[in-house]
Structure formats: structure tokens, C-alpha cells
Amino acid sequence: MKGGCISVLFVLILIKSFDFGVLFHNFTVKFIIMVSDKIAQLINEQIAHEQYAAQYYLSMSAWFSSKDLDGIANYFRVQSKEELMHADKMFDYLNDVGGQIIIGEIAKPPHEFANAIDIFEKALEHEKKVTKSIFNIVKNANDEGDFATTSFLQWFINEQVEEEASASQYVTKIKMVSDNPSALYLFDQELSQRVFVANATA
Ligand SMILES: [Fe+2]
Ligand SMILES: [Fe+2]
């Protein structure tokens, strides 16, 4: 009987120390790497840039929908979803490295555009801005010796290379087809094929 009590006590102690171990482990894993306040601020700003880009592309999508160019509208709709996915990735990263997440204000995007070429040119222009802004975070992270952030942002640098390349290609294409209804129809068909894939690059 005495032996049985000791065994129960021993098991209880084991359970207790296991619980504590798990809690302690989670605590140390969560905060072993921490970003500086400056990097956290830059990432928070980047989250807002990505969310703004999502709104901007949604507005472009709406413009094409209003012209019955549903394929091109689909392209920008998918582009918008990708930008939200980028914001989510940054949100999760900042959370993982113990940075305080502060959701910023998102400005209203333009909704009036001169024509289809104007939209594709603005999309390319915007991607270039985003690239610069990501480079700026990488530069700051490098200066601080924040290897976790530079490594995390490598995915975004590769993504921007793809984004700029495809945006620039579409500027060339829309210039070729915008004055030719048959060619524009085929271009619209081509862009209707795009589907959103989580974690995909452009
Ligand atoms: Fe993005
Ligand atoms: Fe983008």
C-alpha cells in the first residue's frame, strides 16, 4: 500500500514536471530570437504596404471588371490575394520573433485610371516601390546583425524579382494588344487562367 502511494506520487510529480517543461520550452522557443524595435516597426510598416498593395490591386481589378475584361480583372484579384498572403507571412514572422504587431492605417487607393496601359504601368511602379522598401528592411537587419530577419526576407526578395519581371512583361504585352480588340480578347483569356496558390511566387 505504501509502495502504491509512492508510485502515484511519483507519477504526479512526473506529470507536473512534464507540464512545466512544455511551458518552459514554449516560452524559450518563442523569445529566443527577438527583433529590435526598429526592425519590428519596419516590418509593421511593410505589413501595411502589402495590405495597401492588396487594396490597390483590388481597385485595378474593379476597373477591368467594369470594362468587361474579366480575365484581366481576375489577374489583379489574384494579385491582391497574394499581397494579403505576404502581409500574413510578415505578421506570423513578427509574432514568432517577439515583435509587437501594430496594425497600421491603410490609405484609400485610386479608383480612376486613364486606360489599361496606365494600370499595368502603375502596378509595375508599385512593385518597384515595394522592392525598395523590402531592401531597406534587409539593409537595416544586416546593419544590426539580425540574421533571422535577413534570412526571412530572402523569400520576399526572390518574390519581388518575379513580381517585377512579370509586371514589366505585362506592360509590354498590354501595349501590344490594347488597340487591337482580337488580341485584347486573347490577352484577357490568358489572364483568366491565373489562380491563387498560397505561398506561390508571382
Ligand atoms: Fe507583396
Ligand atoms: Fe507584389
TrEMBL record:
GO annotation, cellular component aspect: cytosol
GO molecular function: ferric iron binding; ferrous iron binding; ferroxidase activity; identical protein binding
Localization: Cytoplasm
Domain Ferritin-like diiron intervals: 33-178
Assigned EC number: 1.16.3.2
Pfam family, one: Ferritin
Record PROSITE patterns: FERRITIN_LIKE
Keywords for the protein's UniProt record, in alphabetical order: Cytoplasm, Iron, Iron storage, Metal-binding, Oxidoreductase
Catalytic activity line of the entry: 4 Fe(2+) + O2 + 6 H2O = 4 iron(III) oxide-hydroxide + 12 H(+)
Domain of life: Bacteria
List of residues binding Fe cation: E50, E83, H86, E127, Q160
Top EC class, one word: oxidoreductase
Any one GO biological process: intracellular iron ion homeostasis
SUPFAM superfamilies assigned: Ferritin-like
Stored Gene3D superfamilies: 1.20.1260.10
Main location: cytoplasm
Keyword Iron assigned: yes
Keyword check for Cytoplasm: yes
InterPro entries assigned to the protein according to its UniProt record, in alphabetical order: Ferritin (IPR001519), Ferritin-like (IPR012347), Ferritin-like_diiron (IPR009040), Ferritin-like_SF (IPR009078), Ferritin_DPS_dom (IPR008331), Ferritin_prok (IPR041719)
Family classification: Belongs to the ferritin family. Prokaryotic subfamily.
Function: Iron-storage protein. May alleviate iron toxicity in the presence of oxygen.
Descriptive protein name: Ferritin
